[in-house]
Amino acid sequence: MTEPVILADVVRSGFVEGHHRGSVVVTNPDGAVEWSVGVVDQPMFPRSSNKPMQALGMLRNGLTLDGKLLSLAGASHSGEQFHLDGVREILAMADLDESALRTPPAYPLEDAARDAWVRAGHGPERITMNCSGKHAAMLLTCVINGWPLDDYRTPDHPLQQAIRTAVEDTAGEKVSYVAVDGCGAPILAISLAGLARSFGLFAAAAPGTLEARVKDAFRAYPEYASGSTRDEAALMRAIPGLFCKVGAESVYAVGLEDGRGIALKVEDGTPRARAVVMAAVLQKLGLEHEVIDQQSRFPLYGGGVEVGAVQPHPSTFS
């Protein structure tokens, strides 16, 4: 039986003290699996890696956003001031304020933004939850279509049905399970291969298509889709045509300009291994850049000095 494999080693002072296991898949432009390890054909939750598909479902139903605000609509944002300003701008387009959001109150996702927020005297709020851009766009889509606002997160709401169709269309498979994501919106189970297939489709989308609008917004404004200092923003800035989105539980999906897709999930959900594994996959595919090299190891410290790293498991990516 196929099972997750070792993707990364935890090496301290030359001693391997642990491993991160998981699964990875690379799909061809036609959607077929090119390379894989672990479990890639069974249902999994993409978590926030599904946000580009959610944005596509909204665009198909009249959402008018582009550029920075469309990137924010597909974001797991850090809670920086420009993110909060953007969320308020989207809400204002719907003639709504922050009270309409159904995100759970939270602190900003990024440490520096959280610290600044707390120093300013704030506690957890709905707008600082990392999914507030998506939720503001959901509310705007509902207003445009005359759909109810109070229950926009329920799976049978017209908005969520439209999003489900977009997920199934781009993944090339049916949703197999519906659950509740951290923000309260539905999360839809597809396979890891389906997630990769979707990102390859977005990355290679022809100009003028709705998929290209999403991809172009992310690539033009990667800090709006994540944050100023986030690793996925750095990767999109570095590699021409690359389009990516991370998700909770150490899910990561990338689309390449030639239509190939990549998706991975680290089984234990540890964020520190996520970028390391993606860097190893990109190197295996022949991509080269100093940013990829930097992300291919996560440093470990002892006594204030670097003594090791989380690094790719050699035999998996040889």
From TrEMBL:
Superkingdom of origin organism: Bacteria
Stated name of the protein: Asparaginase
The species this protein was found in: Kribbella steppae
